[in-house]
TrEMBL record:
Disordered: annotated span: 150-203
Species of provenance: Daubentonia madagascariensis (Aye-aye)
InterPro entries from the UniProt entry: LRAD2/Mig-13-like (IPR042333), Sperma_CUB_dom_sf (IPR035914)
Name of the protein this chain belongs to: Low-density lipoprotein receptor class A domain-containing protein 2
Biased composition (Polar residues): 150-164, 191-203
Domain of life of the organism encoding this protein: Eukaryota
Keyword hit for Lipoprotein: yes
Keyword Nuclease on entry: no
Amino acid sequence: DLVALCGQTWQGDGLLLRSHSASRRFYFVAPDTDCGLWVQAAAPGDRIRFQFRFFLVYSLTPASSAPPVPSASSPAPAHPCSRGSFLQFYEGPPGAPRALGAPVCGLTIPAPVASSGPFLGLRLVTRGRQPRVDFVGEVTSFRLVPSLVPSQTGGTDVGTSKPSTLFPPLGSADPLWIAAERSPPAGRDPAQQNATSEGSTES
């Protein structure tokens, strides 16, 4: 649970993370919460991906309308989450976090988030007199595997390529294609093939 692991760093292959222990039964309603959790990839070179399965983060009574002091850790005043509860993602180690995207809040499940390095941070902030927080997300440690198939643009494509079948252009008379069409089947004498062709013509 995010609230139970507040202030810690968790490392592993995968984790089903809930907002609190009573998730999907009761809202987390503690006001003025500011709780952060850092997730570290299982191995060097891996990255972290977070995908919500259920999401509900908002406040029934928003915080004061007085504009907050701008900072790197707070949403801009014009942002929909600026006056209520929100969840913010970060990347980088705990000592040097960098905001990853805009804060998320509301009732719509946000898009998956992936870090560019081995660390992904989550920060839950509740504001207002009636916060409502309940979410479940899946944390996955993954590694980008380069493809072995070169693309036409000089990069690499995922998957394998199949050899294409060549056909002559319509209306063309390429000698190589004509010779291939006239060549006898393997194991047959050209003279026998010609005799067979002449016999079928006379009949």
